Amino acid sequence: MPVRQEAAQIAGEIAELRHAIHREPEIGLDLPKTQAKVLAALDGLPLEISTGRGLSSVTAVLRGARKGPVVLLRGDMDALPVTEETQLPYASVIPGVMHACGHDLHTAMLAGAARLLSARQAELPGTVIFMFQPGEEGYAGARHMIGEGVLDAAGPRPIAAYGLHVTANRLPCGVFSTRPGPMLAAADQITVTVHGRGGHASQPHLAADPIPAACEMVLALQTMVTRKFDVFDPVVITVGSLHAGTTDNVIPDQATFLATARSYSARSRSALAKLVPEMIQDIAHAHGLTADAEYATEYPVTVNDAAEAAFATETIAAAFGPARGETAQFPITGAEDFSFVLEEVPGAFVFLGACPPDRDPETAPTNHSARALFDDAALVEGTALYAELALRRLAQG
Prior knowledge:
Elements: H1 3-9, H2 11-23, H3 32-42, E1 48-51, E2 58-63, E3 66-76, H4 103-119, E4 125-133, H5 141-147, E5 160-172, E6 176-178, E7 181-184, E8 186-195, E9 199-200, H6 210-228, E10 235-244, E11 250-251, E12 254-263, H7 266-286, E13 290-299, E14 302-304, H8 306-320, E15 325-327, H9 339-344, E16 347-355, H10 377-396
Parallel strand pairs: 3-4, 3-5, 5-16, 6-15
Antiparallel strand pairs: 1-2, 2-4, 6-16, 7-14, 8-12, 8-13, 9-11, 10-12
């Protein structure tokens, strides 16, 4: 029986798990309720299961009856600090927390794939590591799991690793998208504090006003992007938080702002880390002020191995039909901590459309929106792809 047909037979159970996880979302590295649901879903399968020491991760190893290499499949489990506005019957019951990025689907699909592959253990030519990961949303959970040994859980390291991510917009439900090379951007944080000297707003010459300097810095960051970086190796800097002062007639002592920097190559990322603090300091000095500028590296560029991306594309075409896959023309400007895995193991990251049929993918609320909706129909497709990638890659040896 084709893998996708097998996945369809357990669609109800996969959806039930997804709804249970969605109803009780958890944030960060400590996800005890989600972990318990995953362990219950895996109970009875022929898996070697371990849980994290410093985080609520689950690592499950399936050893096939036939000798062969190791492949890793990853699904993230954490939610976001968003108040849900979907009115779903299984909407979040936790105030201010929501699975707005679809990680509930990833977790359920990976558990479904573990069932499908466990049923084929006797014919499996190698080993599969199932990586159920907390803390993707800003907590670098993948890096923590690597530190705790997920890549060595089966003994030999994986020859390939695959991650999957649903999207509430852009792609029609059931359509896959991947590409060789950069798939998602690196994400870094810029934290700036401009130190001035407060005073009366009617006598700015007697104070040292940090606000004009901070405003100049914000604008200069945009000019730097267009004048210091190759347009074919793009960089994005967005200031998302700017604070100074308490009222209209007081010059404050300091101004602060936070920005995110996105890049697609190690070269540009390194240049940003050097140029941004230098420029901030130079502008501060030009105003007779001082500034603290911290450039904190967070998630690296998610880089798909060219051969593994081609393999994923071939697998999608063979298992679902050529019309169900696309090669993305450009990378996504979001970031992913699966990038830490792909720094260690060649692999591919694949997007899957989960936009409900009554919504236009071009205008539907995006991932991270309080109104984001993900169609349960995508669960069968994602479950089947996880299993197909493992089966076909192990068969290649």
